[in-house]
Each structure stands twice: as C-alpha cells, then as structure tokens.
Design a protein that fits this description.
14% helix; 641 residues; Neuraminidase; alpha+beta; Rossmann fold; 8-stranded mixed beta sheet; 39 strands
Length: 641
Amino acid sequence: MTTSVRPFGTWPSSVSLDALVGAGVWRRWLCVDAGDLYWVESDPARAGRAFVRRHRLGRGVPEWVGDLAVRSRVHSFGARPIAARDGHVVVVGDDDQRLYRLTPGRVPEALGAPPRVARSVRHGAPDLDGHGQLVALRERDTPTGAIDEIVLIDLASGTETTVLAGHDFFGAPVLSPDGRRVAAVAWDHPDMPWDSTVLLEADLADGTSRVVLGGTGESVTQPRYGPDGTLYAITDPTGWWNLHRRDGEDWVDVTPSEAEFAPPPWLAGETSYAPAADGSILLTWTRDGLDHVGVLARDGGLTALEGPWTAVGGVAASEGAAALVGGGALFSDRVQRLEPRSRRPGPVVASSEPGLEPDDVARPEVLAVDAPAGPVHALYYPPTSAAFTGPSGEAPPAVLHTHSGPTRRALAQFDLEVQFFTTRGYAYLDVNYGGSAGFGRAYRERLRGRWGVVDVDDAAACVRACAERGLLDPARVVSIGASASGVTTLGLARRGVLAAASLRYPVTDLRGLAVAPARFEAHYLDGLVGPLPEAEHLYAERSALGFADELSTPLLLFHGTEDEVVPLGQSLALAAALDARGVPHGLVVVEGEGHGFTDPATRRREAAIEESFFARVLGLAPFDEGLGVEIRHAGALAPLA
C-alpha cells in the first residue's frame, strides 16, 4: 500500500471519537464456578456502569446476569464486588453498597437489613465457602469516623457476625475450605498497604485471631487457601512480592525471583494466583514492565504459558476450569479460558478488539533510560499508519502520559486512547517513573519523600532520551495526566518541558490533599512528601498552587462535582491563578462525575476538547469553538501557521 506524506499530528484516523468511547469497555474481577465464568463488565449503553456477565461452559455468547449495577465503594477506590461458588453469586450493589445474591431470572435478593443512612455501610471483596457462609470486608460510618470490619454472614439465616476488627484497614478476607477459618490482611495509619501489613487468621470456633505473617517493612497481600486448606500469601521480605506457602509455623517462598507476583493493593480482592486441586498454582507476574502467565507445579517447577498477553488483570480456577482476563498488543481486557489440565490458551469468550488494521496499530517499545535517581522504565509508541507517513527528517509531536497513583504502572496492552493519538501522527510516551509498581520495593520507594521531584526528573529524562534518538520533537510535547499524576504533569510544565497539558481531576494542592477527608490516603503523603507540619515548606514548593506564578504552559482542567478524593476546589483555584496571570487555559466542570469519569458522554467530550486544544497549541488547526468551552487568554497562543 502506498503511503502519503502529511504533517505529523494531522493524519486522518479511523479511530473516531465514537469509536474511542464505544471501545471503552473494561472487564475484571473474574470468578470461576465449576465450568462457568463470571466477571464484571462496563456497559457503554448503560452510562458506562458495570454489570455481571456469565459464560457457561460449552455455550457461545456470554450473557448478562440481571440488571443490578455492581460496584464496591469501600475505601472510596473500591474493591472486588463479586464472588461465585456452588451456584451462588453474591455481588455489591452500586447504588446502595449492600450485598445481594443474584439468581438468573429472579429479582436480586438483599442480604441483611438496610442501614439507617444510605451508603453508610459499604461492602467489598465477598468470599464464599462450600458451607453456606459468606465473608466480606465492611466499611461502616460511625460518629467518630469510618471503620473497617470483617463480617461473616450465614446465607440461610442472614445472621451476621464480626470476626475481625481493631485495625484501621483490612484487605480482602478469605474463608478456608472447611469453613472454620478466615484470613485477612490488616494495616494501620500512617502505613499504606504496600508499606507494612500483617496477615491475621481467625478461628471461627473460638473467636480468636492471631498474626501469622508480616510486620514492619513487609507488605503482605492476597491471602488465599488452597483446596487442601494450605494458606498462601504474597509478601516481600526480599523486596519483591513473591508467593509464599505456609508450612507448619514457617513460610516458604515458592517463587523466589526478582519479579512482582501482585499489583499494589489499591483495590481489595485482586486475584494474581489460583491454587488448583492437583497442587499446582495458576499465577501471573510482572518482570521488566511486562506481565507473564504460568503454572507452578506441585514440585516447584514454574512453566510459563505461551500466549499473547502482556498485561494480566487476574486469573481464576476451580475444579475443571481456569481462565484469565488480560490484554496484549492487539486486544485489551480479554476473558479467555485456559485448558484445565495443560493450562494452554483456550477459547476467547469476551474481548475488546482494536477495530484497526494490524498495520495501523502502534506497538510499544520497552525503554530503560538513565535518570538522576537511577534507570527509569517507559513504553514508547511511534506514530503509526498504513496510509500516512510524516515528512522526512522531521520528529513527531508526542503525548506524554504519567500514570496516577503514583504507585500504579503503565500497562503494555492495546489502549484505544493511545491509538487515537498514534494514528493521527503523534508519538505516545508512557512513563513508569520511580514510585511505579512492577519493579520491586526499592524502585517503588524511590519516590519516598521526593514526590514532585523524582517523578518529574524521570519523565523529563525520558523525553530527553527519546528526543536524542529522534523519536519525538521536544518542542512539541503535550501531556495528559489525572489525579496524582497532576503533580508530575504540573511539575513538568513548571520546568518548561511541555507545550500544553490536559489534566483530569488533578492534585494541585498537596497540603489540601493531605488534610482532605479521604480516609484511605489520609497519611499517604507522610511518606511521599513528609509529615505535617514539619514538611510544610515541601508541600508548598511542590504544589502547583504554590508555583502558579511560574506557570506559562497552556492547560486544560477537567473536574467532576462529586469528586470525593480530590476536591473540585483544587482545579478551581488553579484556574483562578492562571486567569489572573493571563495563561491560556480551559476549565470544564462536569456535573455528577466523581474521581474517574464513567459516563461515555463525558469521555467523548473530554477527548474532543483535548484533541482540538492540542492541535491549536501546536499550530495544527484552529480550536473548535462548537465544543462549548472557552479557552481563556487564547490570544496569548502562537498564531496558526
């Protein structure tokens, strides 16, 4: 096919705004019950809310299970909202946060009495045993603040018993196969769950509990009982989250390696491994920024599965069935069965396909770049089109993305937002700056006390390295950031690295975030910046509201009115400061949206505004006035060519 030469950033693309929004389907929280698969899937046709889907063994198309919107709001960020076993399916209702039993063709059955105040009791991470018992994480509002508890519910009688309490936070609880024990991770302020946690085990017969693993400087996560009653957990005494097995009173590292077998536990109930009845374990791990899937045999041999996955969201297994949800270069959030004996890839039962020809899909190059604090990892996607190419000798404009968290990571899987830009002739640089997960504790803790410094250094180093290789034009780098990555993005804008930036519900005032009512993160900044009031000067130095008089980069700000994590006032204050100084900017306040936009209509408008804003700042096209957004002080932008 003959290619035409057109300026980078102006290529006609088959990834339309409608395609971008329509492909915004996510699937996660996979469960296996006998041969049936259950998972939670967002539905663009129902305002992007999530519902349960089921694939029955030997059937074709998955089916929706009822019309109850499903979501856990525990700790504001949420938790796994579903459990399935022996024909029972229990979920957390999005609207009221109560537990429900789902039966196809019937009205959902609420478990337990409703609270006096709506949503004052929030559930998450349910788990079922084979004896009619359900255990769940419960967050409950009290006159002195919210508290966490682990509760046990008898499905027949509805009787509810608190089995673990007394810590600031709990993770996902699990029941032993004989229904006699419950295990759950716990931690207390000021630690975060990737800093220091303990694993508790409760005896349901006598009501006692004890610490069986973990402590200061050790992060235990994802406890799980095997079919034979063996207790497993992922923990990091070596600096890497490896899988451990309890052997008497001792614990044995069964995956000793410099690899991460779990993501950071922002959401209770992740499933990175699944013990099988034959003593093997289906598991996933991250090494050098890419995810892998394999089977750990009873004798300790680890066999990697051959498959196209580079980002795995979870695995699940039961007698006779196994599956995963994951993504690769040409797909995302694919639910795929695995052969129960060999664990080879089996049929795909649900997937988000690219809607692009393979020659139009940008594949990531894994980068390791030198930075002041050490090597930094990133993914680089080149501008890609089967029909168009840029002018010879010209480097493309680039979109720089820094993930939120900041302890999350960039995933090497097909993302239509990336392709939205690469098919238009932009490069896309996704940086796993120091602090990101997937590279061990030392890499993650590189950010301790230095948020707003190390992450900015690392992202700037990646831009420089790519510019030296001719992979991007350093004068035409625009950025997209969200939530915590607003700190990084605005720090880059302060240094003059960016030509423009779009910020979604960004952190602009670190001190305001530190004293905000978000319980889960109440002391997070103690480690990332420093404790207050001793570190007051650092909060001011690294907050955009503190250095607003140094900002001249054109900015877009998007923020929802119902954001409970980063208050709307943070964006309003920055917009006012930019306005006072005559800096070109746009402010979009979205009614009814919270921290993380869910309505496809919101996402469509956001993408349209971003694309047009970037094109205007880079001199590629006039801003679309029909989008209903005013770019304040637009006269200060460079004139169009």
